[in-house]
Amino acid sequence: MALRYDAAVASVRSGFAKSFADVFARRSGKSPLPDKSSLRWLVPAFAGLLVLAAGAMAGLHLIDARERALQDASGKLDLIAARLASDLDRAVGGASGDVAALAGTYVRGALPVDMNFGGGFMIAGPDGRILAATGTGIGSVGGDLVASLGPGQVLTTFAEKAGVMTIASPSGEALLATVRSLSAPLGQIAVVQPVDAALADWRSDARLIFLILIGTGAALALSSLGFHLLTKEARRADINFRHVQAQVDTALTRGRSGLFDWDLARGKVFWSRSMYNLIGMEPQDGLISFGQFQALVHPGDIDLYELADHLLRGEINSIDRAFRVRHMQGGWVWMRARAEVVRADNQGPRVVGICVNITEERKLAERTATADMRLRDAVETISEAFVLWDADNRLVLCNSKFQQLYQIPDSAVVPGTPYEQVILTGRAPLVRTQVRPEGRPEEGARTYEAQVEDGRWVHINERRTKDGGFVSVGTDITSLKRHEEKLLDSERRLMATVSDLRKSRQTLEVQAQQLHDLAEKYAEQKAEAEKANTAKSEFLANMSHELRTPLNAIIGFSEIMTSGAFGKLGSAKYEEYCRDICDSGQYLLDVINDILEMSRIESGHHRLRIEDVDFDATVLEALRVITPLSEEKGLALRAEAATGIVARADRRAIKQILINLVSNAVKFTPPGGRVAVRLRQVGGAINIYVEDTGIGISRDALSKIGRPFEQVENQFTKTHRGSGLGLAIARSLVEMHGGAMRIRSTVGSGTVVLVRMPLQESESEAA
Asked: 385 phi and psi, to 5 degrees?
């Protein structure tokens, strides 16, 4: 019956195709047809007959398909029952004990056959009582098998001899059922399947055929109506068709996509016009060959021959791949092909799909990857420890400095690792101090300082991101902490200086008393001496610069008295005393100036005035100040300056450094000696060398040089006065410029002082 149906369908299809071929041939003028009035009624009549014939054939096919579906279901049910009975006999047959438990164990275990057929089975004992059941819905454990299957059936009587029968359940549902006898201690097994489940595929096919029939009828009706108006609307239809085709091609072109139909059997490929436009190729009316298509595809992306082999073998049924196609103007175009394999009756497999130009997406992905790589590189190269967590407190990104800070292994910094796991694998900080922010605190932000095991200090800032995560940046503040310790040490040294000043005050008071005794002999200078004594006392008490005012007065009056501006003093001894007063006052003023200068530097009140400094000219200015002293001692003072070094520095501080160092060299160099100043640019720094052939400094005393009020006492230096602050001031000023000072000396041979200062470009050079 199925063969008759297939033959009838083929005949109708052939006649239908031939009729429409005649119609379209008539339009093209290739075959004669009846006149338009006869054809206008002939086509609807033919369409009606075709619908009736198709409906009759569909009915016959559905009846035949239903019978075959029931036969197939019965055969499958018979096989399932036989297999279940055989397995139960092997598993339970001859066993002793609780038969119901054995049957229940079998039901709960892995079934030996595929039971996905919409039915179920019941296992009964010799007395017909159901011991186990699954998936039936018509009987339960403890019930009667005969009552469950219906009293009118003969299955329980004849068992396998009755085969598969259609019965009605107690609820009235039609069932396919079969019964098999089992070995003792079991009785029978009944396998049932609802007829509706057995005919599920048939109903689906019936609905599909019915819908196709309705659709075909509607299509034929519409075709008849359309053909009725075909003569009148033929030209308009052609215009509309071309318009629609142009719209589709435009849409595909604007969407940078194209359609293709690949006939695997013939090796021919159909391309839409937009497909040709994608690769800059002139559209062709015919199909392109498989070889032409392969020649355009990049060989490293996809092998169409291998792909065709997989498609023909049925290993894959769809395509979703990206590959490159050569453009006619040069270069490659990235495309993504998405297609499905279509297998029609009496035709070979075809691959129908669409190709989309994804060149821009590829370029965007490459740019995104490049930007991501640059971002990661930037995070890696920053000087701070950086880590980013997501909203679930899982690791997103961190740099190696974060790993090194907390000694975290590489295995623990995989993206997606929970925060707790990362922290547990690293080392915890020894000290953690919360830092209160200045002003209004930012929501979701916190700042704290932590000290790790190796002694380093880290300043950590944490901020919330918009997606709920947070970013943490750790800055190494070890140098700041050390600087803070240095400030505390400087404060302690300042307190020591104050203590020394107090001791000096006692000495100054003694000297003031001596000056007071001397001033009593000169009534005119008595008031001024008392003012000087009072000023010195206030200076020693308040650390003020006011002490210099009376000292200047003392020096001035002593010079007047020495010069005899108002007459002779009367005794040469008085003139000697006046010169001593002048020298002592000048010495005391220098000491006070040095003390105040050192105090300002150590307290941080001394501010550098940075400007463009010509170091050659500054060296010459400093030497001009020292030249009279060197000539008085008979020393050779020489300068070897560099060639036009101009850098950013404090001119007054540089000059003071040079004067202090050169004056010390002149002071401790015997007559006939030599003092030299050399200036060199070495790398990114300026080196200033002050060399002398003086008495030298012992190795033990070198560690004291440069400290406030420290002096080297030996048989040579006992006769040289000084506060011991000159080198200390010079060293402090050098360090304020970011430089360093070193001293090398040999006793009896001389001393070399090296001042190394970083070179900062002048504004003119920077411009």
From this structure: -80, 125
Per the domain annotation, does 234 fall within a domain?
Answer: no
Q: Which two tokens stand for residue 142?
A: 């403890």
| Domain match, 158 and 274 both | no
For the chain, the 3-state helix, strand and coil shares in percent, each to the nearest 5, are 50, 20, 25
- 3-state class (DSSP) for residue 436: coil
Q: Give the chain's largest Cα–Cα span.
A: 167
Tens digit of each residue's pLDDT (9 = 90 or more) over 6-57: 433 333 333 333 333 333 333 333 334 445 455 556 666 777 787 788 788 8
In angstroms, the Cα distances linking 554 to 393, 519, 532, 596 are: 77, 11, 7, 20
Tens-place pLDDT, residues 302-322: 888 888 888 888 888 888 888
- Do 220 and 267 belong to one domain? no
- Shared-domain flag, residues 512 and 595: yes
In this structure, the answer to whether residues 388 and 260 fall within a common structural domain is no
- State the pLDDT at residue 25: 36
**Under 8 Å CB-to-CB from 650, ≥6 apart: which residues?**
608, 609, 610, 611, 613, 733, 737
Domain membership of residue 328 as a residue range = 254-364
> What tokens does 686 get?
């300026």
242 falls within a domain: no
Query: Please, which residues have CB within 8 angstroms of residue 465's CB and are 6 or more apart in sequence?
Result: 388, 471
Number of domains in the chain: 5
SS3 767: coil
Sign of the torsion angle spanned by Cα atoms 562, 567, 569, 572:
positive
- What phi and psi values does residue 108 have, to the nearest 5 degrees? -75, -20
Say whether 536 sits in a helix, a strand or coil. helix
Does 464 share its domain with 488? no
Q: Which CATH number characterizes residue 454's domain?
A: 3.30.450.20
